[in-house]
Design brief:
Layout (H helix, E strand, L loop, with lengths): L13 H11 L3 E4 L6 H11 L4 E5 L6 H5 E6 L2 E6 L1 H8 L2 E5 L6 H7 L8 E4 L4 E4 L5 E6 L12 H4 L3 E4 L5 H12 L3 H16 L11 H12 L4 H13 L3 H14 L1
Parallel strand pairs: 1-8, 1-9, 2-5, 5-8
Antiparallel strand pairs: 3-4, 6-7
Bound molecules: adenosine-5'-diphosphate.
């Protein structure tokens, strides 16, 4: 059985670095804003290394119990159910904790013993310690958004990982990604990338998050399936970015001039 490799366009030395991190089983942190290819990169690496990938999208309610496991009542019995982290540790999978800083603090505490030489997890509800499988690897992502609303990651936690930064790709590569992902013509892809570059430079707009590659991929998909170009950009790029009417109008005008 061979499943098609996820498409990933290399940006720098990240593949080589990850392979060595995996060989040495050093936890890996992907830093960068949303939509810059972090999840795609991990899917690609898991496929390349032929390892199972278990992804957890962390949010403010994500607790160590969600990751480690819990007792559930089944009929007249109480049975233990391993959580995704415990499963990954036992099976030797790669676990990807997406947006780890959003999770509750007990998640960070729970993974400590997995991120150093011990490579073990203490399951307090069972009073058991589980040693990680030789292939188990911990990967996390973190959005170092400088805006309010984003949580920080403590230095004592960060120093347990090696880290790579993800940013928006240079224009040529970003256009290639759009073509590959959606089948759109290169000429239109370049126009979309120019729009993104322009908006990313408009820091004075105070947007919480700017145009990501993901938004461009969505716009390209709509165009490729036949929606008019300007409307595609409006609904896939402009509207998701802001609710401010004046800013929306200004961005729409700008985009219309560029596509
Ligand atoms: P993140 O995890 O950083 O939020 P994703 O990995 O989900 O971002 O990327 C969003 C989309 O952008 C992907 O689905 C893919 O279409 C596209 N993308 C971004 N960077 C790349 C890349 N280097 N190679 C291929 N696709 C990419």
């Amino acid at each position: 059985m061979s499943i098609k490799a996820p498409y990933y366009h290399t940006i720098g030395k990240e593949i080589e670095v990850f392979e060595h991190a995996f060989k040495n089983k050093i936890p890996f942190l992907l830093k960068g804003p949303t939509g810059t290819g972090k999840s795609r990169f991990i899917e690609f690496m898991a496929h390349k290394l032929d390892k199972k990938l278990i992804t957890i999208s962390c949010h403010e309610e994500t607790s160590s119990t969600d990751l480690i496991g819990r007792f559930i009542i089944k009929g007249a019995e109480t049975i233990w159910l391993d959580g995704p982290l415990t499963t990954a540790i036992k099976e030797g999978a790669i676990i990807y904790l997406d947006e780890i800083a959003e999770a509750r603090p007990d998640v960070i505490v729970a993974i400590h013993s997995l991120t150093d030489h011990r490579r073990e997890l203490f399951i307090d509800k069972l009073g058991e310690t589980v040693k990680a499988h030789a292939d188990f690897m911990l990967v996390a992502s973190f959005n170092p958004g400088y805006q309010k609303g984003f949580k920080e990651l403590k230095p004592s936690t960060r120093q347990r990982f090696i880290a790579t930064s993800f940013a928006y790709p240079v224009a040529k590569i970003e256009a290639e990604i759009l073509v590959n992902e959606t089948g759109i013509e290169l000429d239109i892809a370049k126009k979309l990338v120019n729009i993104a570059a322009k908006i990313r430079n408009l820091t004075e707009l105070g947007l919480a998050e700017t145009v990501s590659t993901r938004l461009l991929v969505d716009a390209a998909k709509l165009i490729h399936s036949g929606l008019p170009k300007r409307l595609s950009v409006e609904v896939a790029v402009v509207e998701p970015l802001t609710d401010d009417l004046e800013v929306t109008e200004a961005l729409k005008d700008l985009c219309n001039l560029m596509i």
